Amino acid sequence: VINSRQINLTPTPAELAALFGAGYFLWFIADGSTGIVAGVVGVVVGMILSRVVGVVPGPSWLGRQHVWGAVAVGFLLAMPFVSSGGFRTDQLATAVTWSLIVVSLNLLSGYAGQVSFAHSAFVGVGAYAVAAMIDSAGANILIATLVAVVIAASAGVLVGVPAVRLSGPYLAIATAGLAIVFPDIIRLQELSSVVGGPSGLSLFQHEFGPPVHWSWLTTDRWYYFLALISLGAGSLLVFNLVNSAAGRAMQALSESELAATACGISVPLAKVSAFSISAAMAGFSGVFIFILTNRSVSPDAFDVFLGVNFMVAMILGGLSSIPGSVLGAFIFIFFYREGLSTITSETEDGTNKWLFIGSLGVMSVLVFGSTTVKLLAARFEEAWSWKFARLVTTLLKLGLAVSLAVLIVIAYRQGEGELFNATRLRNGITGLSLVLFILFLPKGLMGLLRDFSGLTWTAIAQGVRRYILVDPTDQPSDSALVSESPGREAIG
Amino acid sequence: VTQFVQQVVTGVFTGSLYGLMALTFVLIWRSSRTLNFGQGEMATFTTFIAWALLLHVSYVLAFALVLPIAFLLGAGLERGLIRQLQGKPALNALLVTLGLFLIFNSLSLSIWGAETHYIEPPVSGSPFDIWGVKIPKYGLFVFGMTIGLTALLFMLFQFTKLGLALRATALNAKAAELAGISTGSMLMVGWGLAAVMGAAVGILIAPIAILTPNMAFGLLLLGFTAGVLGGLDSPGGVVIAGCLLGIIQNLVGAYLDDVVRFLQLPFGIENPNQYRNIVAIALIILVLQVRPGGLFGTANKERA
Question: Taking the model in full, what pTM does it have?
Fold first, then answer.
């Protein structure tokens, strides 16, 4: 669709800034940084490259879904053996568990369209149920987990039944309220004999190692593979569910409950079952993070931010998408959580800090800069002559990139822990990306990838141009598409 | 009886703040048909600004300076952010305000830190004593400010041209636009006013609660509760509901133990104050079951 004449090879200032950032990154990666950061860099570099080599077609197998699926599964299976073990494997297990939680959240909030901030509470119910049973009754963990799943499912029913009459913002209020209140309930003195009050329960005296003694199967890897198998089973469950009659009934809820009723769907049944299945999965996942990996539960672990973070991970990956859930969870754990704390932990040479600052700068310029300027440019062109408008736009872009860089440097120099403290800013960065994603990529990363489904270089270039690097003054590809099929817009 | 009246009076005082908070939700709900989850955190942020100003200027001046700042903040957010989401699914705007929640919480945290700050109440001294009922001076001040602000808002809506335009926009944006009202600016003003009210709540509640970046979690919940009780499109309703909520909370704090003992339930309540927020969420769910549009609100009629 694009031919070489239509592509403007002169980079805009925003792209130059991005290129600079990418080069900066590569230098640090050569210096030995984590692979996830390298991946982020790869994406940025790929975006730049695709801009430059936009006319080169890529191999067709890149577009096949199962190829990517196989790559992803291979990656997940190999990771605990490739990574440096111990702590890193724990992180991986956490990411896999988060994936499962986000899959369950996606069933409820994505497919069935029921906003739930209360997933932190469901996870908490599961984790606390197991912890309490082991702590006070010395129950077998397997049985305790089974019972906990039932308890979490009942919690889902308990929330789902009142939710039948609620929708939209009112449901959001009710679930947000539950998320706020859940730690308060756990802290109640009346319950402290069972759940341990404000200090929670710890299970450090218990061991949940692998049942067989193979040298390669360390405890960390055992937890990881357990979580991975659960994720596989959970994904399969949700995948089959949403492709069944019951699942389609749930999906009908997200469009219009009235229409669903008119189609003969029992809205209460669909809603309550969505809540209970989702809650059961979330409660089950709670066992992995809090019982196996952390071996302790406390009310503070289940604050509002946890539920909000699940939501953010879901949005990052993409609504109503199982692979998107996994992608979102991994990015959340490794970029927003671990990435940000790595930065604070290594302050002597400050390399990691710069890495982070650079990536933030590049992303803001790419995503925010170009698009805002694009909006402004359209205004300018209405008001002034085309040439003058273009000059102003270019100056604006340049000014934006420079001022952003200056701001970041000032924040860094000022800070040294005061103004610029990555741990304290973590929620803000999460929130900022949530806002940016909703504004510019509402379908999430999976939606972005799906739009690249052809995955030839041309398609990537086209997508990148449309999403991020759009230059207000040249938009060649769309007109070509429309002229091929004139009735397309009208029918769609 | 004295104790009962005492609880009711202090309940009304704190409850009026919940009502004011709920009023901010009403303002935004009426203008943009969305909820602002970031409202509480924005209030905390502006309260911190007030705290910083108080190091240099008097209470009245700080109060007066913060309100325009808050207005610009709210109006700017509407113009720069929420406006972009018009015509998109309602969930998008909701999630963006969730992002605001995170952003403002972390801004307050990274600028002012997690330690507690104090705002001295402008009026202090021993409480008035009327037939044994103690009326704290600051509580009375808060109540007076709330009533004053609500009255000001009411007058703005009822007796000015701007208020008429605001009401028209809330009632029917298309028709208002045809009548020559710039609905866009009205939405902006709505958000700005909401931020002003939020800022006022933050400053007023800071001496009672403790000023930390997480001050507003409870406030958000209680504001929502008052909003739901009163109905998100009923400004008068939410103020009354806020006062009711304050009273209920205080009565729960004072009498839950007695109720449990009276009913001879098999457990005792050791610290009834723990139940304040839980009662709020229970109220939300109960009221929404009976009247999904709030006690004084109109139910949302859906057409397919």
Answer: 0.79
